[in-house]
Amino acid sequence: MVEQFMQGVVTLFQPEVLLFLFLGTIIATVIGVIPVLGGAVGMTLLLPFVFGMDAAVALPFLLAIQAVSYTGGSVTAVLLNIPGTLPNAATCLDGYPMTQKGEGGRAVGAAVTASAFGGIATVPLALLMIPVVIPFVLKCKAPEMLLIIVVGLCFLAVLTKGSVLKGLISAALGILLSTIGWQTITGVGRFTFGVVYLYDGLSLIDVVLALFAVPAILELAAKRQTIAPIDAKSLKEFSQLVKGARDVLQYWWLWLRSSVLGYVIGIIPGIGSLTSTFLAYSIAKQSSKNADKFGTGQIEGVIAPESANNSKEAGSLLTTMAFGIPGSGVMAIMLAAFIMLGIQPGPSMLIQHTDLCVTMLAGLAVANVIAGIMVFFGAPYIIKITRVSHVYLFAIIVPIIFVGAFVWNEALLDVFALLILGVIGVCISRFGFSQASMLLGFVLGSLFEYYLWHSLDAYGNLFFLSPISLVLICIIVGVLSQDAIRRLFIRWYRRRKEKTA
Hints:
By secondary structure, the chain is mainly α. The chain has one domain. It contains 22 helices and 2 strands. Helix 10 (about 205-225) packs antiparallel against helix 18 (about 390-410) and helix 12 packs parallel to helix 14.
């Protein structure tokens, strides 16, 4: 085992492997900075070109394209309120308000540092935490997976400004939108109104752009000013980047906790990358002394989701290699790459190809180091976009939004769907509902329905009576009633204090 481990590390530092790893990191960084593309698109386009290559070269190359794109994607999330990749959506919540206050450099510095370090730190965790996490994953059947999804939605719902009810309504609306199209079990079309286009459901890219990009660009046009104010302090961009990096060190416990959370969520198959980032954000807010300021430009709201988005990749990869079960949708592409290169993922892979597994995991760490350095030192030039006139930004970003909606499925109707969903997105933003809860509800809606059907079929109406399910239900009740519990505790404490006085 030790010899195979060492062989995996030696293989990683072969010139050919490092060359392709560096190339993949550059491609991923560029793809991440370009809104709505993401690593999944890059992996899909390059998958045919790795056929016939050595697995030790091809797999780290593809893996770097996926994982590192999150680091580049944080830049557009912070500066333009447009997530470069889907998991960067949570970064928009506090990153963009920081940019509007002239602290875009600080937010980018914190995001890049937290994301890169998160991707590096969880590589050893992928080996150390296997005995602890894997048995729990194996015990999570359909009922437990269903309730884990509900837990994630409830965490976000309680963070909605002013009203938990608005957060729950937003999540429910997201789930409702996800039901548009064919129902896979019954074969019945829902909410299609006879339109053939709707039978395939709504595009995830359309929903993301409608919830984040459209309201942001309309607000920018209405204000008729640059994204961030121009003053002497804001021009010292590199000092802001360094300050953001120091913030990660200052909030090291938040970074570590969010990274571990992202890793654990990554191990659980099918939950998805958005869950880890939004859940890390919600826990960061609940544990913060400045919880009421989240959403207005808190650095903690940038560090938490960016720590989780890269850290989950080691967990997702581990699940894909060890069980042959994709830990995320993108890992399904990696699964195809394994099979295409003649490697059968599953329990035997960790034994028969230990050196390759070590090469891939170590490659994740090296790719994050390279990407972190590239984006960090290139950010001062990228940040200048926040000083550009709103007229030019509007003229540039609007075509990008529509092109992004079109190229995903190459369907013109996606553009019309974006216009309609954009109205919903503006209303959600305008009336204080939760964009994050709605997006997470939409993403997890199909999984919610899938696990609900399977829970009812396999376990009946009392599917929620397993020990893990009951614990999760208690967590849900506690999260939704935390304000009432806090008030009761304060009253009890005051009465007790009065009696003892």
